[in-house]
Structures are given as C-alpha cells and as structure tokens.
C-alpha cells in the first residue's frame, strides 16, 4: 500500500509568522521582572534594618556613656569592694568601715562586697595578694555591673554626696583628669601613658603617690567597655587583667611590695594593659592622711576631699588605724545624718 508523503515545509515562511511559544517567553520575562523587584525590596528592607540597628547601638552607647550597655534592668553601675582582714583587726573597726561603704552605696544605687583575706588560697604568697582573687570573685559575682571600685580597708569615704559619676566616671569629667604622656611609675619611668586614649576606652583608673601606683583605691571596668569601632565589649579585659596579675610566676617572685610591684610590672610591660590605663591626680579619690616620703603636699587630705586613706597605719598595727579612723568616723556620721 502506498501512503502519500506529507507536504514539505516551505523555506520561505510568511514575513510576519507568529511564534507558537510567544506566551511562554512573555510569562518568563514577566516573572523575571517580579523577582528582580522583590530582590530590590528585600535589599532595601535589610539596609533599613541595618541603619536602625546602628543608630540604636550608638544611642545606647551615648545614653549609658562610660558605663556601656546591655546589663539587665536594676543592675548597679558600681560595686564597692573592700577586702577585710578579720584576723588582725577588731570587729568594731571593720563594722565602721563597712557601714561607711554601705551608706554610700545606698545613696547612689550601688552595691557592696566584703570578702576577707582568708577566703582565698594564696599558695604561700603574702596575704595582701588576696586583693586579686577577691576582685576576680567580684567579676564573676557581679558580671553585669559596669565598674568595680576597689577601696582598701583603711580608708573612709568623707563626701557621700558625690556619686562616682560626678567624681570621675562621667566621660567628660574623666577626660579632664587623665594624665597623658605621664610616667606610669613615678618619678621617671620610661613607660608613659597614652596621649590619645578616649575616656570611653579606659578600663583601669588608678592614681600614684610619690613612688608608685597607689592601689588603695582604683576602678576596674567590669562591663560595657567600647572598642575603637564603638562596639560594646563584655568584660573580657577585666578577666584578662586579673588573671595576668595573679600569674603564679609573679606570686612566687620575691617582689619587695608583693602584688603592688607585680601590678607595676604588668602595667608597664603589657601593652594590652597599658592601652586601657588612665592615671588621675591622687586627691581625686585617694587622698593620704599623713605626709611621708611617698606623699607630697599635693597628695594630702584636705576638707572636702572625697576619700581619706590612713596611709602607713597598717604597718603600725590595728590600734594606729583605729585611732586615725575615729575623728573621721565621727565627722562622717554627722554628715551622713544630715544627708538623710
């Protein structure tokens, strides 16, 4: 049986022949435009969210100032830490010291912490080394508190009306107090403080007497430090600083002033620590009561100073500290009563 062949396609189609897949290509083009538009909208939303988060972060830093941000509501900005020597000082003396700190903390919404020297294992190191593990304990116990204020046992807060922010922690205030390009250890250390360190990047605030760093009172930032980009950090620097200070090598080394000389060593020779250090005049928060070779005229307590330190009394026994404390305790009690 013979079948007819299908007709051949012409090699010359009509000039305006319509493609059979026109609808397919039209749909694909429309869909592609939709996807492009959706992608542009998505990128715009992401850009807006990024800008908002940046503005909020900057606003939070500005609002909290040197205290940083991110802590839970109700967290005190400062914890006052005083390490007590219960073995060598009578309880009556220590109770007066504690009452002074507690009253001040209540006035300004701060909190207090009173560890003792015997709370920490020092592995044959002098018991004055207890200040370092006590502060490390504080970092853990008050992990969202912005600042740790270490105030030695033989000192009194004499002007309870002033907050720590008014005295030193407000960034604009700290900027005016910082000693720049100053010898870290007086009188002529070759290592000097940074000249362009902003106040909001300071993590350690301390003063000097005539011969050394005066660790009877200093401030350590525990939370809310900002780096050069404005990012808020979580207190890792404080842990690093204290762990470095408490290194077994330093504890076993026979420094003449134990942890005091170890502190001077790490501040001078560890750039990571020096880069966060601010030195301030001694009378800002660490005035000495007695003039000695270490304390010149510009270090001695005068009426109206924030704090008085009974410098040197510890080496003379607890009775000397008690006798020096008594007139200042009475004055403070009178002022505290008027302020209530």
Strand proportion, as a percent range, falls in: 5-15%
Query: How many helices does DSSP assign?
Result: 10
Whole-number mean pLDDT: 86
Helix content: 40-55%
Low-pLDDT windows of residues: 59-69
- Secondary-structure element series: HEHEHEEHHEEHHHHEEEH
**How many beta strands in the DSSP annotation?**
9
Radius of gyration: 33 Å
Our measurement of the CA-to-CA distance between the termini, rounded to an integer number of angstroms, reads 123 Å
How would you characterize the largest beta sheet? 6 strands, mixed
- Structural class designation: alpha/beta
Placed side by side, the strands forming the largest sheet appear as 2-1-3-6-5-7
Overall shape: elongated
How would you characterize the overall build of this protein?
The chain is 40% helix and 11% strand. Strand 5 and strand 6 form a beta hairpin. The protein has helices at 22-64, 91-108, 131-141, 164-169, 171-177, 236-245, 248-252, 259-269, 271-274, 318-339, and strands at residues 78-81, 111-113, 147-151, 155-157, 204-208, 213-221, 277-280, 287-288, 307-309. The longest helix has 43 residues, at 22-64. It is α/β, with parallel strands linked by helices and 340 residues long. The strands form two sheets. It has a six-stranded mixed sheet with strand order 2-1-3-6-5-7, with helices on both faces. The chain has a three-stranded mixed sheet with strand order 4-9-8. The termini are far apart. It is built from ten helices and nine strands.
């Amino acid at each position: 049986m013979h079948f007819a062949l299908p007709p051949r396609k012409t090699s010359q189609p009509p000039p305006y022949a319509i493609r059979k897949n026109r609808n397919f290509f039209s749909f694909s083009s429309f869909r592609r435009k939709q996807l492009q538009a959706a992608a542009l909208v998505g990128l715009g939303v992401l850009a807006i969210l990024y800008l908002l988060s940046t503005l909020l972060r900057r606003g939070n830093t500005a609002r909290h100032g040197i205290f940083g941000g991110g802590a839970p509501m109700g967290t005190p900005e400062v914890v006052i830490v005083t390490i007590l020597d219960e073995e060598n000082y009578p309880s009556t003396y220590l109770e007066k010291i504690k009452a002074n700190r507690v009253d001040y903390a209540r006035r300004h919404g701060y909190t207090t912490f009173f560890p003792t020297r015997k709370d920490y294992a020092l592995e044959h190191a002098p018991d004055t080394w207890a200040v370092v593990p006590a502060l490390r304990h504080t970092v853990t116990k008050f992990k969202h508190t912005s600042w740790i204020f270490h105030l030695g046992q033989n000192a009194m807060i004499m002007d309870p009306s002033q907050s720590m922010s008014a005295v030193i922690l407000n960034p604009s205030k700290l900027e005016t107090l910082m000693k720049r390009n100053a010898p870290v250890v007086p009188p002529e250390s070759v290592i000097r403080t940074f000249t362009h360190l902003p106040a909001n990047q300071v993590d350690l605030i301390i003063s000097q007497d005539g011969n050394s760093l005066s660790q009877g009172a200093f401030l350590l930032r525990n939370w809310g430090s900002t780096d050069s980009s404005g990012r808020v950090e979580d207190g890792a620097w404080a842990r690093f600083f204290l762990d470095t200070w408490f290194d077994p090598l330093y504890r076993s080394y026979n420094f003449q002033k134990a942890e005091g000389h170890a502190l001077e060593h790490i501040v001078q020779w560890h750039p990571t620590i020096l880069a966060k250090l601010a030195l301030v005049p001694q009378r800002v928060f660490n005035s000495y009561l007695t003039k000695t070779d270490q304390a010149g005229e510009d270090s001695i307590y005068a009426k109206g100073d924030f704090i008085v330190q009974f410098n040197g009394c510890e080496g003379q026994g607890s009775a000397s500290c008690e006798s020096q404390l008594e007139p200042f305790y009475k004055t403070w009690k009178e002022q505290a009563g008027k302020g209530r």
